Amino acid sequence: MDFDEDRIYFSHQNLHSGERREDNTSNSRGDNSESWEDKDDDEDGYVDLDAVRRHFREFLRSYRQASGQSGYIYRERLLRMHRRTSGEESNPKKNGCSIRVELAHVGEYDSALLGLLLSRPNDVLPQFELAAKDALKTFLHDLKADSDSVGSVQILLKGNLAATPLRSIRSKHVNKLLRVPGIIISAARVRSRAHIIAIRCARCSDTTTIQALGGPFASVPLPTRCQGPNPQECGPVPYGVLSDECTFIDQQTLKLQESPESVPTGEMPRSILLAAERGLVDTAPPGTRVNILAVANLFNAASSSKAASVRTLYLRVLGMTRETTSADNTSFTPQEEEAFRLLARRPDIYNILTRSIAPSISGSYTIDIKKALTCLLFSGSRKRLPDGMRLRGDINVLLLGDPSTAKSQFLKFTTRVAPIAVYTSGKGSSAAGLTASVIRDAKGEFYLEGGAMVLADGGVVCIDEFDKMRPADRVAIHEAMEQQTISIAKAGITTVLNSRCSVLAAANPVFGRYDDLKSASENIDLMSTILSRFDLIFLVRDIRDEQRDRSICLHVMGVHIDNYKPGGATAGSGLVAASNALQPFNSGDDALLGGTGAAGSNSDSLTDTNSSASAIAENAMRIATTGVGELNVSTMKKYIQYCRAKCSPRLTEEAGDVLTSSYVKIRDDVRRRTLDSDGGEGSHSVIPITVRQLEALVRLSESLAKMRLDSDVQTQDVAEALRLFKVSTMAANQAERSTTSSSSNNSNPSSQSIMSAAIPSRDDMMRSESFLRSRLVVGMVVNRQKIIEEAAGQGYNAMVIARALAVMVMRGEVQERNQSRLIKRV
Q1: Roughly how many angstroms between the first and final C-alpha of the chain, as a whole number?
Q2: The dihedral formed by the CA atoms of 249, 448, 329 and 395, expressed in degrees to the nearest 10
Q3: Mean pLDDT, the chain, whole residue set
Q4: What is the mean pLDDT of the segment spanning 801-806?
Q5: Are residues 635 and 616 in contact, defined by beta-carbon separation less than 8 angstroms?
Q6: Contact (CB, 8 A) for 356 and 636
Q7: Which of 340, 456, 602, 753 has the most CB atoms around its CB within 10 Å?
Q8: Among candidates 174, 187, 234, which has minimal Cα distance to 208?
Q9: CA 741 to each of CA 542, 736, 745: distance values in angstroms, whole numbers, following the listed order
Q10: CB crowding 31-61: b at 16 or more within 10 Å, else e
Q11: What local confidence, expressed as pLDDT, does residue 593 receive?
């Protein structure tokens, strides 16, 4: 039996004042709700706030769920809150004086109360908090506990209202309760705002208090006349504020921005100001994805003070819940789970996922790139060591190569299929834009604003034109790529932000295209410190060959015909079939150009229409049973979320032994090649092979096991990870050496003649260097192409002159400037 079960509470009363009084206590609950809904009949819509307060107090006192076995939920929460906060001044709780209230419980108790809370939250919520204080005092009095020390109680709302996109908030939403999803991009420092202001007359010492009801950004006007016994003697504006006797509450200003994936193409992401108070301060650092329940209000900004009718919109936060960034709490229907498990049991799941990556892009070189992107999307397993150190599980991939090889299209597709993704271009990105920045507001205070890698926490950040970034900006992301944190120590703000994301970057060689006359180190103008942080580095080449060019034309024409000619499916299918019928080339020797932007993008966008749970389950089940076709974008995204949430593979001892022996052999091969080079041009590897590459092999193996929902990494996963590493990073590391060795071992006479022409003799090199020394005076700066053309006009071989210039640059006799367009003799 409850301690107050035999008491009688008069709570079901009409909220509206005037002639409509409640009938006696015999009024039923349904009649009471019906009378509340008559409020539209009042001209001014006036609501009796005292009645609202009584009804909320009765809700907190008597609500229990339908089962009746959970007890009185809010009684227990109020008493637990009081026990947690009373007498603990030495260890105060941040959210100590607040309780969470479910909107569904309010609606279940009385729909009229919920209607008032949704339509008039500014008027009703203060009464709700007063009702909570009254109810707590009643409970403590009946328990014979001290009820005099009860302070204010904050009501934090929680519920699944229909989401209102940030860019859809209009004037009709002012003073309404909204649920707005987004991501916190900046947070100001916590301030103290006077909630109850104590004032005193300077003449007669009359003391009174006024309450700040204008909102977090509004000023509080002081009385212009004294309210004491003789107001005429005190004069105008006699009151002054007693700061020591005022009551203050914590307040923090946040900035909420749209999630990157919800921003329409070509639009700027929009943001809005948030005002958080009391228990909601310091709960969401920049980069946190949240769902907020808030009231849309207006305030007079300083910039719009001249326009009296124009106000700035802000959201006063009444409740905030964090969204997970790793899809751990993503819901899956039973049909989806059944289809995904059946799909994971297929032995060819790896091939199905690979061909579902950008299916409109074709070519022999794209096969391994698609497999690498598949591993990147699934990622490895994050680990936390006993000493607190974290090992990243995200995979970083770099695509380095010639233009028109579909690098940017791979990045765009990854942005669409990844659960969380941010796309940026290197030329338009700075270190602060990628990591975080400290910004000074109009009042001169500093606050923190997260960049692209903070916004992509738990997903993928795609950086196009990676080579166009300034070296100082690339250095700024070193910590984010390896430790997956961003440390800030600026303007008195010292903090660490999470950036647990994969990096997919695309870059061009130094000269725009890969130059066969230059070494790999000269073509790859990136520091080894940044290259070692990429798990896989693909060198994409555009090799000119008639057969390959013809097959590319067949595929691209097939894509365009299928996409724009509804009746031409047969012709398009034939062209694509002819392209696919060609034997795949060696990915180390060839590179086919992929389908270009417009066709690929439009072709892939057709799959976005089927994003419902039933359509996703149907597509996954069809592929799982037949093994024919590709997963559409929605199904692929949901399957990636499912695998990352449900599976975290670990290495077995057998797989660890294979990785150990393979890594030692790779390091030994690199050491032997370095010794065999006799300290020449290739004496140092372009991409160092370090322990980071060993950890990269572990992550690749774990991602391959995660695709099958296998908790253990098998030896075949390690073998495939080693193969991907050899055809990407190791192939890029040996690009120049492999070209030279293939020329010496090639049995084709025409190929030998071509390569012999590309490799000049020692006498030709000496003659070319003598010409350059005589032509270039010490300190002289000239155009590189002009020198080569001048030498060709005098009978020298242009390729030999270019080779001689490269050798002189390596020796330090000549310096290159302006992206190697100019040369200077030193």
Answers
A1: 97
A2: -160
A3: 76
A4: 85
A5: yes
A6: yes
A7: 456
A8: 234
A9: 20, 9, 6
A10: ebeebbeebeeeeeeebbbebbbbbbbbbbb
A11: 38
